[in-house]
What does this fold into?
Amino acid sequence: MQKNIIIAGVGGQGILTIASIIDLAAMNLGLHVKQAEVHGMSQRGGAVESHLRISTEEIYSDLIPLGKADLILSIEPMESLRYLPFLSPGGVIVTSTESYENIRNYPDKTGLLNHIRESASCLLIDAGAIATEAGNVKTYNVAMLGAAAPYTGMEATELEKAIATYFADKGEKIIATNLNAFRLGKDYAQK
It folds into this structure.
């Protein structure tokens, strides 16, 4: 098994939290993991990306080559387009439909989402609505992870265990809310 995942968004959206949860689940399964990340301008609103490689075999590079990503998990829709050259022919984009308009000439949202649909196999997620339903809008990123779970190469139960471990020091309520967001995201994606 080998999965190459690019997680993209802007600073403050929880990109590195998603990567850490996936890393933890993979390590719990005894898989090899490599991760590389770029923190955009080291501030909220700057571009952030994480290359995440998971395999049953040893991995020699932490960067995903062009055309080899199985999944682009994007918390911001325009950021998903930035990484299209990395997507493999059979790869999928899982992206939020909610934009973070941090530039003056941000494209029209309808046109942007249509461009994503035309570019690759994709799943568009209203993560804000899911996170709100889960009980806390801050679970937005975990709702997105839930929607992308079927494409990670790991069972959802393994990701749920990693979520519980990752948030263990935050208390049972935070764990439960994040697990709820994860499950709602997964259910939304399976409709």
Summary: Residues 2-97+107-189 form a domain with the Pyruvate-ferredoxin Oxidoreductase; domain 3 fold (CATH 3.40.920.10). The chain has seven helices and six strands. The longest helix spans residues 172-189.
